[in-house]
Specification:
Elements: E1 4-5, E2 12-17, E3 22-26, H1 27-47, H2 64-88, H3 90-95, H4 110-128, H5 132-156, E4 171-172, H6 193-215, H7 224-240, E5 260-262, E6 265-267, H8 269-293
Parallel strand pairs: 1-4
Antiparallel strand pairs: 2-3, 5-6
Helix pairs in contact: 1-2, 1-5, 2-4, 4-5, 5-6, 5-7, 6-7, 7-8
């Protein structure tokens, strides 16, 4: 069997021993920081081009994007952590509520972070008298960049790997990823689903959104970019879940990690959470097109 060895990259960029306390910068943290900061600057650049927006008017001053950044960071962190707690490990955290705040130990849910960011954006829009669609489209325009960086960081962390495979591009992950399931012969190579998601949710979806903004004037049609992002992410995540290893706690329900059965087909938690995104995205795109024709 052919397989790709895991690259010798440490999850930590550097660490400093401060005498009983270690200060470290990890690639995952850097991905979050870079995603927020670059996304903020991209929104500022779009706001400085009024022609991109409905009626040729930017929905807010470029300086207001800094406040939007602060609200978004708060929403993503709170929503991502609470989503991980209640979507994936509710029993454990209800029994150990003191561990909910231990975000430095890992555990963030994209779907929870999305809900948190949406709530933060809605509150920001209401407090500042801005159309919620403009805030949503601004945020959706830059999220694929953050997803791309975050999935690359997931790969460096050797986490969220895929199911075992005999394909030649399978990766020999260290740690728990190297443990073969019962009956598996030879090295346990796995699908690098973090890279699949980086390519689909990040790179491809980002290019589609960029094309719609730059070439199709999509920001002039409220909810069009938001709908495109939701539908694109929902479809990409639903597809990749067929090769992604489900969280361990779901194997107690079914050996393949399914949490919901529909006839002969099962849905993982990731697919269950992505379906509403796909449907909502398609509905928003249809709404934007209908209003555009009017």
């Amino acid at each position: 069997m052919y397989a790709i060895p895991f690259p010798p990259v440490s999850p930590e960029i550097f660490s400093i021993d401060l005498g009983g306390f270690t200060l470290a910068l990890r690639w995952y943290a850097l991905a979050y920081l870079a995603g927020f900061l670059i996304g903020w600057r991209l929104i500022v650049a779009a706001l400085r081009r009024p022609a991109l927006w409905p009626r040729g008017e930017a929905p807010m001053a470029p300086a207001a994007a800094e406040s939007l950044l602060a609200w978004t960071i708060l929403g993503v962190i709170l929503g991502g952590r609470l989503g991980f707690v209640f979507f994936y490990h509710p029993g454990h955290y209800l029994a150990n509520p003191g561990e909910i705040l231990r975000v430095w130990e890992g555990g963030m849910s994209f779907h929870g972070g999305l809900l948190g960011a949406a709530a933060a954006g809605f509150v920001f829009a209401r407090r500042n008298g801005i159309a919620p669609s403009a805030i949503a489209d601004s945020m959706a325009m830059v999220v694929p960049l953050g997803l791309f960086l975050g999935r690359i960081a997931n790969f460096i962390n050797a986490e969220l790997w895929g199911r075992p495979t005999e394909m030649p591009w399978g990766v020999l992950f260290p740690g728990a990823g190297a443990i073969c399931p019962p009956g598996w012969d030879g090295p346990c190579a796995r699908h690098p689903t973090q890279l699949y998601e980086a390519a689909l949710e990040g790179l491809l979806l980002g290019l589609v959104v960029l094309y719609l903004v730059r070439r199709r004037d999509a920001l002039r049609f409220p909810w069009a970019i938001t709908g495109t992002f939701l539908a694109g992410y929902g479809a990409a995540r639903f597809l990749v879940e067929f090769w992604r290893e489900p969280d361990a706690q779901f194997f107690a329900r079914h050996p393949q990690g399914f949490v919901v059965w529909l006839g002969e087909f099962g849905l993982t938690m990731g697919q269950l959470l992505s379906l509403p995104m796909l449907l909502a995205g398609l509905a928003l795109v249809a709404l934007a097109r209908a209003r555009g024709r009017q």
